Structures are given as C-alpha cells and as structure tokens.
Amino acid sequence: MGMIMWELTTGYFANLMKRCWNPDPKKKTSATDVCEIFNSWSNMGMDAKYFNQAKEIRLELMKSKMLQQ
Asked: For residue 34, how many other CB atoms are within 10 A of its CB?
C-alpha cells in the first residue's frame, strides 16, 4: 500500500508528506500548518490540478495491472 501511495503522490503532496513524516518533531509540519497549506492550495486553484494528476496516474496504474493479469 505504501508503494502505491508514493506512485500516486505528486510534487507538492509528496513534499508535504515528507515534512509531516520528519523524524525530528521540531521539523515536523503541524496539523494547523497542514490545514493552512491545503487552504492556500485551494485558494490558488492548485488542488484540482494535482488531484487530477494523481487520478490520471492511478488510472494508468490500474490499466497496466489489468494487462498483467
């Protein structure tokens, strides 16, 4: 499951995940910061663009796995 998540995660989302998973608590992104980041992305119209990219990647992966069966 983790590998699939990485395959579907692009640019800004991947960078945010890395910040949230930082082993140093002082460098970890807080939940409040995550909400603010999502709000700023939404206000800039970025959310739809990146969700659509992830959807396209997911569909391509699904097609390729069906062909392997």
From this structure: 13
One-character DSSP codes across 41-62? HHHTTHHHHHHHHHHHHHHHHH
Angle, CA 12 vertex, CA 7 and CA 14 arms, to 5°: 40
Whole-model pTM above 0.90? Answer: no
Tens of pLDDT, residue by residue over 7-44, are 556 677 778 888 898 999 999 999 999 999 888 877 77
Number of domains in the chain: 1
17 falls within a domain:
no
Residue pair 56/7 in contact (Cβ under 8 Å)? The answer is no
